[in-house]
Amino acid sequence: MTKSNFNARTTNAKYRWTIVPDDVNDDGEFEFANHFNAIVGIELRPPPPDNEYLIPVIAMRKATELFEYCPSCGADVPHARPVFAVGDYMVYPCLDCEWVWCDGTAPQEGLE
């Protein structure tokens, strides 16, 4: 095999690795290859129509500082659950529905 067959940037590359909200612990980490890795510092792709570029996760705080209930499904937010600052978004890994992308510039429920 040639070296180009191993280049992840080729058009034929297949990506099967995805972080789902259940993979994220309350410390903002996910396990991959038996190691815990921080979400802060990785890049996430926002939902359409803003999904052209990946955006780095720059900070983390407790979700209960922003809201009591998931903005998407309405489930209670556990006390220790994280929320991530990603560009102009606050991204919450809800255990009941999905990655919830909130406009980080608008006041959220629970903010004074």
- Helix/strand-derived category reads mainly beta
Shape: globular
Total DSSP helices: 0
- How many extended strands? 7
The helicity comes to under 10%
Number of domains: 1
Order of helices and strands: EEEEEEE
- Calculate the mean pLDDT score and round it: 80
Any low-confidence stretches, pLDDT <50, length ≥5?
Answer: 1-16, 107-112
Largest sheet: 5 strands, antiparallel
Strand fraction: 25-35%
Question: First CA to last CA: what distance?
Answer: 60 Å
Q: Please compute the radius of gyration using only Cα atoms.
A: 16 Å
Give the strand order of the largest sheet, numbering strands 1, 2, ... along the chain. Answer: 3-4-5-6-7
Task: Write structural notes for this entry.
With 112 residues, the chain is mainly beta. The strands form 2 sheets. The protein has a 5-stranded antiparallel β-sheet, with no helix packed on it. A two-stranded antiparallel ribbon has the order 1-2. Helix content is 0%, strand content 29%. It has one domain.
